[in-house]
Amino acid sequence: MKIYTKTGDKGTTSLVGKRVDKDHLRVEAYGTIDELNSIIGYAMTYLDSNETNNLYGELQRIQHELFDCGGDLAIVKDGIPFKTTNKMIEDLELKIDEFMESTPPLKRFILPGGSKAAAVIHQARAVARRAERCVVSLMKDENIHEPVLMYLNRLSDYLFALARVINVIADVKDIEYERGAIVFRTSQKEE
Predict the structure, then answer these.
(1) Residue 188 CA from chain centroid, whole number
(2) What per-residue string of b and e applies to 14-37 under the rule 16 or more CB within 10 Å gives b?
(3) What is the SS3 assignment for 16?
(4) What contacts 59, CB < 8 A, 6 or more positions away?
(5) Which spans of this chain does the record mark as coiled coil (predicted)?
(6) Is the dihedral of CA 112, 61, 66, 93 positive or negative?
(7) Using the 8-state DSSP alphabet, how is residue 85 labeled?
(8) Of the CATH numbers 3.40.630.90, 3.30.470.20, 1.10.3720.10, 1.20.1200.10, which one belongs to the domain with range 16-169?
């Protein structure tokens, strides 16, 4: 089986419903999601301890969901069902809450890094934010399936919380941004 089609040799690609230039905002958005998916796959190669093995399956599920998001962005034809659901977003929210309860309270911004797995997850978080910005730009001109945007927004929060959990498991402390003020308060009395 040949994987090349030569149909893109003139700088266009197919969406579900029409052809567009390869630099179209819709292609940029799902291409950035593909980049994010690749970085998550790379991060998964560092999840080799007994304590982090359970996260591997969770990230693999997210990789499938990112394919769903990218596929939904490629649909411009009416009548094609979307795959990204509100349940996927709710599942991320539950995991974010679980992760944040199992990590030390935040007071300041933290620097991306720590263990190798956490550092790569922080990179994925930054790319998730870029993917979200691409989708926002796309929304200014075209209709999109809105759960894709919400999913990417929650996913970046999930990845932030996950990086912190991975560092806790690896017994690596988060490094606070030292020139920053306290920005996260758990009560009104804190300064």
Answers:
(1) 32
(2) ebeeeebeeebbbbbbbbbbeebb
(3) strand
(4) 40, 43, 44, 47
(5) none
(6) negative
(7) -
(8) 1.20.1200.10
pLDDT single digits (tens) 126-158: 999 999 999 999 999 999 999 999 999 999 999
Question: Per-residue pLDDT tens for 47-101?
Answer: 977 777 789 999 999 999 999 999 999 998 988 999 999 999 999 999 999 999 9
Q: Among all chains, which residue has been given the structure tokens 């997850």?
A: 121
C-beta separation of 131 from 33 below 8 A: yes
Element (H, E) at 137: helix 116-139
The single-letter code of the amino acid at 86 is N
**pLDDT at residue 5 greater than cutoff 50:** yes
For the chain, the domains span: 16-169
Q: Two tokens at 53?
A: 């093995």
Calculate the alpha carbon distances from 134 to 75, 129, 149, 152, 157 in Å: 16, 9, 10, 11, 17
Taken as a whole, the chain contains a residue count of 191
What is the rounded distance in angstroms from the CA atom of residue 168 to the CA atom of residue 111? 15
The CA distances from residue 108 to 122, 184, 191, in Å, are: 16, 6, 11
pTM, two decimal places: 0.89
